[in-house]
Amino acid sequence: MGGTAQMLTAPEHGLDIVILVNGAPEADAVKLANQVLDAVLDGELGVPASKISSEPYQSLLGTWWSASEEMLYSLTDKDGALELTVCGTPLGLQLERGSDGRVIAPGRSLGEIEVGLDRAHRGDGLTIRFGGRSATYRKVSKDSVDVVAFAAAAVGEYRCADANGTAVIATDEGRLVIRYNDPWGGVETDLECLGETLGLSARPSTKWSCALSFSKSGGRMTGFRVNSVRTRNLVFERV
Predict the structure, then answer these.
(1) Is the pTM above the cut of 0.85?
(2) DSSP string, 187-213
(3) Measured between alpha carbons, how far is 68 from 169 in angstroms, rounded to an integer?
(4) How many CB atoms neighbour CB 1 within 10 A?
(5) 74: domain CATH number?
(6) Does 161 share its domain with 134?
(7) What confidence tens digit (pLDDT) does each residue in 101-135 have?
């Protein structure tokens, strides 16, 4: 888990950069390739896009959720600059303001993500556009969540037909965990409660994380959908 690669070419300069990463949590192949590009072609590149200071947007820092997209994004402060993270992954995407005034996370391994900071600053919700779709996101307030009730409703076994795997949610020494298994192996993560039917499954030591959107009936979770950086609407149903 954690294998990734980045291939970048600058044809006018005869430069090709290929980086392979396997399991190094802090090694971001995209950022490393861009750093190599900057170092090798120092002085030959155009003016870099300006970072966005996080100072004017302190009230927007935190996690944002869209029920229609079933996706989580977070706005974070990285050394005074504003970054966007997807579904709790520890690696943030630097936000930039383009010449047209739009705020974007540039299209790299995911594609361009446009963030409506100014509208959110007025209290109208955070608009995020990705993959040709726009949705309004609302800030997650974890303080009002009944974590005990969430755990009681979620504990159990679930099956995913598309992935030919299972997921078991259980309590372990005060932690709520979820264990995924399929014919090729398994992984265990913490399960953080973010709302009555919303959870975040993440392994702090890796880049792997995903949002879980639960369906609930009669005080019991009947299933959930998994969405992550590269996954959309993977369905698990209670066994």
Answers:
(1) no
(2) EEEEEEEEETTEEEEE-TTSS-EEEEE
(3) 25
(4) 11
(5) 2.40.128
(6) no
(7) 889 998 666 788 999 988 777 777 899 999 889 99
